[in-house]
Amino acid sequence: MFRSMQSLLLGIVALLAVGSAQAENLPDLKGREIVVASENTYPPMQFIDPATGQPAGWEYDAVAEIAKRLNATIAYENLSWDAMIPAISAGEYDMAMNGITIRADRAEKVDFSAPYIRSEMFMLVRADEDRFSRPEEFAANADFLAGAQPGTTPFYVTVYEVLDGDETNPRIKLFETFGAAVQALKTGDVDLVLTDSTGGQGYVTANPDTFKLVGDPMGSEDFGFIFPKGSDLIAPINAAIASLRADGTLEALNKKWFFDYKAAQ
After folding, report:
1. Cβ-based neighbours of 11, under 8 Å, separated by 6 or more
2. Rounded to the nearest 5 degrees, what angle is found at the Cα of 191, between the Cα atoms of 188 and 197?
3. Residues 65 and 105: beta-carbon distance below 8 Å
4. In what order do the strands lie in the sheet with 41-42?
């Protein structure tokens, strides 16, 4: 017993030493302010906590830890998704976080950080849904409607992998925010919202009697922060992400927000 406890303590000390060494080797931004845009509609990545009325989530915790390790300060600005990539591309903000999928077409306009989380795409439906559980079953019934936010990965997966490849298909109802699409699902205005497992599980965890995820995963996607092209913040942010991964901080955030967090009803 003593030897096992001793080994455990030595392991913890070694892990802390590695984390400390990594933090010491990270770039020092000398208090630099980083202006970060976020939409705050994508739990558990970033959202307005109903218990406090304040922004919260996985990305807020991660960015706070990144800022601490890099000796930077963060100023947040709320920004809609449809304006986010153009605004970052134009240099209006230093960085944005919104559970943003790393994609080649977006990388033509903005630069991405290294990926900090991987997620899979699922079908989010009402908790009592029993008419379909596979994309083929949804597609076969012309009465079923899908909600989506234009320009997002779920929108394109809905168009090209669930339906017929027509981006103007009237079965796709468009909403300005992901949250609005989920609300339409809740009220029965649409029957399906595609989401990555990260955001979808956030809604299911907060509302287990209202929503569920069904079917097999429909591919995977990596999330990254976005920056104006050529930003000098990319290298230090990537170094900080690597340190968070190496010392277990990213896994700790996954546990906190995907398993332990219970949203106020």
Report:
1. none
2. 115
3. no
4. 41-42, 46-48, 55-56
CA distances from 184 to 41, 117, 152 (A): 14, 27, 17
% pLDDT > 90, the chain: 64
Given a cut of 80, is residue 263 above it in pLDDT?
A: no
Number of H helices, E strands in the chain: 10, 14
Higher pLDDT, 207 or 189: 189
38 φ, ψ (degrees, to nearest 5): -155, 150
Mean pLDDT, rounded, for 156-181: 90
* Residue found under tokens 């304040």: 54
pLDDT tier at 262 (50, 70, 90 boundaries)? Answer: low
Quick: pLDDT tens for 208-225.
999 999 998 887 789 999
Give CA–CA dist 198/130, Å, rounded. Answer: 23
The one-character DSSP state at 17 is H
- Give the C-alpha separation, 145 to 139, whole Å: 9
Tokens at 156, concatenated: 């394109």
Query: What is 50-85 written as a DSSP string?
Result: TTTSSEESHHHHHHHHHHHHHTEEEEEEE--HHHHH
Rounded CA gap, 114 and 13, in Å? 28
Half-sphere exposure of 142 (CA within 13 A, CB side): 2
Q: Write the CB contacts of 71 (distance below 8 Å, at least 6 apart in sequence).
A: 28, 29, 30, 31
Nearest to 63 by CA among 53, 52, 76: 76
| pLDDT of 8 | 39
Average pLDDT over residues 24-45: 92
- The interaxial angle of helices 58-70 and 234-246, nearest 10 deg, is 110
What distances in angstroms separate CA 38 from CA 42, 59, 70, one per listed residue? Answer: 10, 10, 20
